[in-house]
Amino acid sequence: MNAINQAFQKTKAQGNGALVGYIMAGDPKPELTPKIADALIKGGVDILELGLPFSDPIADGPTIQAASVRALAAGTTPVKVLESAKEIRQRHDVPVVIMTYYNPVFKMGLDKFFNVAKKCMVDGVIVPDLPVEEADDYKKAASKFSVDTIFLAAPSTSNERLARIVEYSSGFLYLVSHFGVTGAKATIEDSTIHLVKRVLPFTSGRIPLAVGFGVSKPEHVQRIVEAGADGVIVGSAFVNLIQKHREKIDVLLNELQATACKLKAATKIIQ
Prior knowledge:
By secondary structure, this protein is α/β, with parallel strands linked by helices. The chain has helices at residues 3-13, 33-43, 62-73, 78-91, 102-108, 110-119, 136-144, 159-168, 190-203, 218-226, 236-245, 249-265, and strands at residues 18-24, 47-51, 96-99, 124-126, 148-150, 152-153, 173-176, 209-212, 231-234. The chain has a 9-stranded parallel beta sheet with strand order 5-4-3-2-1-9-8-7-6. Strand 6, helix 8 and strand 7 form a beta-alpha-beta unit. Helix 2 (33-43) packs parallel to helix 12.
């Protein structure tokens, strides 16, 4: 059994949903990424998602776009991101997932990318701009190196296409909670809860379901877990803290740990 599945099984056995925490690797500078990861994991993050900065992050809102710009300006490269993943993985028994657009993967070459990812102890990869219909070679290369392929499903995804996405996915299915791009929201809409309940029959007993985009507060986490999701993905809430406190690293690390702790507490499944 792979590390991501083990993480979901562990949280389920504890009566919790899984907290997946996203940060942009290299923001505000590459050498701080492992320290930021330490703080999140101490706070309760069960799976760490590292964004690989890219010049045209079409699925991301202003918060993560700005983080990508800062990371690139600090000299972050795909290889540095993978090296950070390895350092984090060696320090913690927590799965690490890379979120990247397809261009850096294509440029490096599928086999080379997944070979390096595996050597750097990466557990899974998310590529939001790669349609499942065009992912055969990608899926084969990832499977060759035993790296999970985490695909996204959206509110507009048809049931037929959803079944295919579930078939191609391993690790977990990333369910986009609403139309649009990433970014913290004030509330979780009822449509998100209905979406979770629509998708659950496709994932139940097959693959964990984790919900992201707009999840930023403990009450968001609680609603989504109560609706039946196996986990929640929080990104912009952490990235906003990094942007706010990037000049005061001790404050930043304390704030990240405290925020993660509050979000993790909200994953408790109430029987």
